[in-house]
Please model this.
Amino acid sequence: MAKIYPVIMSGGAGTRLWPLSRQKSPKQYHDMVSDQTMFAETLLRMRDCGDNDVGAPIVICADGHEKLVQAQADSLDIALTGIILEPMARNTAAVGAIAAEFVNRIDPDGLILLLPADHHISEPQGFWKAITQGAPIAEQGYLMTLGIEATGPDTGFGYIHRGEKIADNVYKISGFKEKPNEFTAKTYLETGEYSWNAGIFLFNVQTLINDYLEHASDILEDSIAALDNATTSGNCHHLSAEHFSKIRSEPIDIAIMENTVHAAVVDPVRAGWNDIGSWAAISEFKHDHSNEEDVFDGDVKMHDCENTYVRSEEDGPFIGVVGVKNLIIVATKDSVLVTHKNHTQDVKKIVVHLKEKGRDDLL
Model:
């Protein structure tokens, strides 16, 4: 089997997890649901890969985060093939194109495992079972993704519609569906043909490059130029801002996966997956993994509360909470967030407000 090169996408801003997630230290570099940061969890998952032939990870992150990345890798004694630094955000199609060209220069016959840095997977053996099932199909020229077994009609995820079966637990993809309303999500699950789209991909390098040439040649061309003109220092590659800024901003799902005839999915994947995309997701995770009625982190006292999660960071204040329900309260040294659990998707609106007011000290 071809060697697998993990490419960890670590450029997300995590605005829905403000005030903990900030520009200088986004959510993936924090211990949100375990004693490890989500980025560290991802590195450890790549190391604990069983019998799979997996190379040292490649990390694509925001310029300025290289010290965070290297420090967390060093703390785990995990070597990195390289750190690729984006001068600005250009979405995941640009990341995929950069990954394709970077790995192509290392091993043209390799497989790219493209995955986010900010997911929690409690059963990594299920994750690697799916990769093992998908790798031979990727070598045949399919662009693989992982379909997470849906446990409910969640409106916060995209969905994958399974098509023709081509191998054990592997199917051609009939279509990708954007985040649906609750009624539509329920109809998806009733068919038994849909799964959650985790945004985890497994590609043969040459197939991916050929699909970029066919469907998004401009993104590939500008990405190669940004890489060709990068400034390299040690294992850090600072992409050319002049060239990277020209790249069209689009998700890889739309630019490539929805257009290719080679799309396939490993489904179902049972790996205890959680994208940790909001404070509601963290609250739900904490409640599911606690035997206590009051769920909190830090210097907190709760009394007579229901379905509430409270968190005070190490440098935050003491928080006393009495007689509330369905709330999430998060405090850092300079900010406090109070939100109903049903409105945590709107936390990013606070970030927008702070940007408009020039409150860079809180961003």
